[in-house]
Design brief:
alpha+beta; Beta-Lactamase; five-stranded antiparallel sheet; globular; endoplasmic reticulum; Longin-like_dom_sf; TRAPPC; transport
Length: 145
């Protein structure tokens, strides 16, 4: 059985949730829970940078639990500061998926003349290409539903 992506989040640089997508039936969150999780992740990420005993720490990249993993990609530009995915433990190819999602974000959201930075993402080309990327990466074990 292929591993599964549960959810995908994009958080702006101030910690606000600007995009959320459920995949499949497991791990579904209602609107309030998705907002809380995004805010909590943003705060934990920031605190981890401050508490790290290692200089130059960029925050939490992976949080592993028994039933899920959270993988985070932080953009160096500060735009869409964090993209993170909740997935089944052991899901391969998450890092490459996160980089692909960021490339799609820069191509279809940031270059969209009608998009206001820091605001929720409402872009049909982004949605379409994101769905294709998740489906395409299914070759490595990801199955977007």
């Amino acid at each position: 059985m292929a591993a599964i992506i549960f959810n995908l989040f994009v958080i702006n640089k101030s910690g606000g949730l600007i995009f959320y997508k459920d995949y499949g039936t497991q791990g579904r969150l209602d609107t309030n829970d998705s907002l809380r999780l995004a805010s909590l992740w943003h705060s934990m990420h920031a605190i981890s940078k401050e508490l790290s005993p290692v200089n130059g720490c960029n925050g939490i990249e992976v949080l592993e639990a028994d039933t899920f993993e959270l993988h985070c990609f932080q953009a160096l530009t500060g735009m869409a500061q964090k993209i993170f995915v909740a997935a089944e433990p052991g899901t391969p190819g998450i890092d490459s998926l996160l980089k692909t999602v960021y490339e799609l974000y820069t191509d279809y959201v940031l270059k969209n003349p009608f998009y206001e930075v820091e605001m929720p993402i409402r872009c049909e080309l982004w949605d379409l290409n994101l769905a294709l990327a998740v489906r395409r990466d299914g070759k490595t074990g990801l199955t977007g539903r």
